[in-house]
């Protein structure tokens, strides 16, 4: 057992799903945080996880984008995006967290979709119920997967598919008449897409898509550092 500070404990619990997946795949083990209640350090220690907005910007034509540090399973928004795999099997990372929090209804609907289409191609997206999640819909999008240490050429080729995935997410938002959507850094975790380039592509695609539209949406991105930089450059 390794004692950690309250600040470190909070950081570990925020990233617990991704950290568990990485530890299991790399070393065949997991981790447990003690003195933690409901995913945050126990109230007896005075810590509490709260949604934290880090950046807001209003782009031309009224598009509002904000960058948050928060938990997608509890964030209040019309739709959340799940970084899915082509089989819509939510076994690790964000997909697992959303599936568990949303209940069996999401999993069962995904199974019905796969029975019809066999597999969701990279770059595509589908919409399901949100189950028990505090949103209206879940948009499952398949981003490109890269090997660790991928070359610049491989990253740029995969970036075309990431751009397609973001475009299809926004198309689903419009089709479903949703006013806000929370988008994580798709492909940047277990799929090894470089986070900085991921943020740049997502922000550029948001702007390009909405430059052609008259409707105003509020886009909420769940991440911090590189998204803030990318948004600042697009202002």
TrEMBL record:
Residues 52-235 form the Macro domain. Gene3D superfamilies: Leucine Aminopeptidase, subunit E, domain 1. It holds the Pfam family Macro. PANTHER family: GANGLIOSIDE INDUCED DIFFERENTIATION ASSOCIATED PROTEIN 2-RELATED (PTHR11106), MACRO DOMAIN-CONTAINING PROTEIN (PTHR11106:SF111). This is Macro domain-containing protein. It comes from Scleropages formosus (Asian bonytongue).
